[in-house]
Each structure stands twice: as structure tokens, then as C-alpha cells.
Amino acid sequence: MKLLVCISQAPDTTSRIAFTNDDREFDSTGVQYIVNPYDEWFALVRAIELKEQHGGTVTTITVGGPQCDPTIRKALAIGADDGVRIDSEPKDAMQVARLIAEHANGKGYDIIFCGKETIDHNGAVVPAMLAEMLDCGFVANATHLEVSDAEATVNREAAGGEESLTVKLPLVLSAAKGMAEQRI
Hints:
The chain is of the alpha/beta class and 184 residues long. The chain has four helices and twelve strands. The chain has an eight-stranded mixed beta sheet with strand order 7-6-1-8-12-9-10-11, with helices on both faces. Strands 2-5 form a two-stranded antiparallel sheet. It has a two-stranded antiparallel ribbon with strand order 3-4. β6, α2 and β7 form a beta-alpha-beta unit. α3 (93-104) packs across α4 (126-134). The longest helix is centred in the N-terminal third of the chain and has 18 residues, at 37-54. The chain is globular. The protein starts with a strand and ends in a 9-residue tail after the last strand.
């Protein structure tokens, strides 16, 4: 099983946040960054669990400069096999999705995991854009995933409850709370 996990860094919520240039720009001085929790705790951990169950590889991918390297190293320490950094400063969700799609296209990934949102911008559109660009299935807000042969059974958060879907691979999904238990 070939798995790709999109990870991003986000400011630690315990960091003191400040703005400069008449409060128009974020001042990153002294800010500690972490792996976005939805990417780490749910997407990455579930991908590693699948690798342990079915064999295969887990590759992480992030868009950003050298300041993202600690994020990649943490993912490797948790259990990813490889980490890719696309050396470009993320400007918006479309650019990030396009760069990841360009990397993933033709590489034969069975599942591409993303967290359901980022904690810094509450952005949640990259996974859907990525699925569209790669012309594959997409499930948002996934809380449970089981894989057999060339399909997956996915539970997802839905208005008023939860629904269960069976979808063919390859697949992009956004992982929500419940997808996996955090590894420390």
C-alpha cells in the first residue's frame, strides 16, 4: 500500500502571537511551530497503522521552506518512511493543492491523507482541490477507515450524525477526530 500524508506546520497555540506593519503582517519572531494536529494525530497516525496492517510505505509531503524541516523530522520519528518538502512558500490553498498534485500525479498512491483543517487558518479546501486535480475519489471529515483490496470503507461526519461509504481507491480523504489515536 502506497500512502501519502499531507502535513503542514502551524503556530503552537501556546505561542505569543504578534503583528507588525500596522497590524497587517504576522510576526513570526519567537513563535514555535508544530505539526498541524489534524495532520499528525489523525491522518499520519492512521496511515502508519495501515502500513503496519497491510505493508507498504508512508510518505509525507509539505509545502514550505527549510523552516518546515522540523515538521518533516517529527513525522519521520512518528513512523513515516520518507518526507518530501516542496520548496515553495505557501501563498494560498490552490497553490498548495496544485504543487502537491504535481508531485503525486503518476506516483501510484493508493490513499492521500490530509487533516480535516489547519488550526491556523481553519482552512479545509486543499483535500477537495487535490482530489479534483488528481481525478480521484474524495471523502471529507473521515472518522474511520478500513481498506480491503482496491476499496475502502469510510465513516465520515455528516450533518446530524455519521455516514458510512464504500469507495474505490485511489482516494483522497480529510481525517477528523476518531480516525486514529495520537501516538506520543
